[in-house]
Amino acid sequence: MLTDAFSLNGKTALITGAGRGIGARIAPAFAEMGADVILVARTESDLQQVAGQVRDMGRSALVLSCDLTDENQLPELAAAIAAEVATLDILVNNAGAPGKGYGSLATVDRRRFDHTLSVNLSAPYSLIHHTLPLLQAAPGASIVNISSAMSWMVDNNMAAYAAAKAGLDQMTRVLAYELSPAIRVNGIAPGAIETPATAFITDDPQRLEETVRWIPQGRMGRPDDIALAALYLASAASAFVSGKILEVDGGMAALPGPAIQSRLPTT
Ligand SMILES: NC(=O)c1ccc[n+]([C@@H]2O[C@H](COP(=O)([O-])OP(=O)(O)OC[C@H]3O[C@@H](n4cnc5c(N)ncnc54)[C@H](OP(=O)(O)O)[C@@H]3O)[C@@H](O)[C@H]2O)c1
């Protein structure tokens, strides 16, 4: 059947930031579609919880705790993966956050700026670099980089995060060309998604209302929305798609600037 192209049977997927939020939804979704998964984040207890869900579905889950901002840990991480699998079919670079780089120009110094670049941009680059032999050994391998609407939107206090995600988008396009035709590289730019990272929005009714006002679909996104997009880009269903950034944002990117403004409060 045509829709068999969405199957991940027999595939191995590495998902970073798999302990919470979007990554913690992508991993069981991929397992449901037949993949064995490798789960990476710093907090092992979170990863073990997600691994339990995956194993309950009859798939294997390898838990590897790692701080992706520590470049010294990445060759070790890649070696630990290579010790377990001969090929890597899917790499989802999902770990990321505004993190220490969130704040105004006056408050964010170079050290904090670099930390945000490190987790959102340098770590994905480095992980692709270190796992390249495993990806090259897998027929039809696919890399999915989780970007952000902040890669194209403009907002206060986001210079480091926005720059990192914009860099990630362009890196996605360049690597899609460089690694073709063996490996496809795509990105997803989520809008506002309900995860622990956005609890400051969902826990505050006024902030939630202001956020939803400029989302045409009238709600925040859910981790399911991103997991389904990741499934498309990771699977053979998107075999002719590479170098693309897929906006999953409830229609936000379709609004021209003035339309966004007209949806903001007029105080
Ligand atoms: N939620 C949104 O509205 C939204 C919107 C646009 C883009 N995004 C992007 O979507 C991705 C996931 O966001 P989320 O909202 O699901 O975030 P989240 O709930 O904060 O989860 C982030 C995950 O990444 C891991 N992580 C963070 N720093 C890490 C590091 N240095 N090394 C290894 N793992 C690390 C975290 O685990 P540990 O802390 O245990 O390491 C956690 O598992 C990010 O790239 C984010 O930029 C999210």
Account of the 3D structure:
This protein has a 7-stranded parallel beta sheet, sandwiched between helices. With 267 residues, it is α/β, with parallel strands linked by helices. Helix 1 (21-32) packs across helix 8 (223-234). The protein has one domain: Rossmann fold, CATH 3.40.50.720. It is built from 9 helices and 7 strands. The longest helix has 27 residues, at 110-136. It is globular and about 55 Å long. The protein starts with 11 loop residues before the first strand and ends in a 5-residue tail after the last helix.
Task: Give a brief description.
The protein is α/β, with parallel strands linked by helices and 267 residues long. The protein is 42% helix and 14% strand.
Cofactors and ligands: NADP nicotinamide-adenine-dinucleotide phosphate
Name of the CATH class: Alpha Beta
CATH architecture: 3-Layer(aba) Sandwich
Distance between the termini: 55 Å
Alpha-beta content class = alpha/beta
Strand content: 5-15%
For the largest sheet, list the strands in their spatial order.
Answer: 3-2-1-4-5-6-7
CATH third-level topology: Rossmann fold
Summarize the topology.
Blueprint: E1 12-16, H1 21-32, E2 36-41, H2 44-56, E3 61-65, H3 73-82, E4 90-93, H4 110-136, E5 141-146, H5 159-178, E6 183-190, H6 199-202, H7 205-213, H8 223-234, E7 245-248, H9 257-262
Parallel strand pairs: 1-2, 1-4, 2-3, 4-5, 5-6, 6-7
The structure holds NADP nicotinamide-adenine-dinucleotide phosphate (NAP).
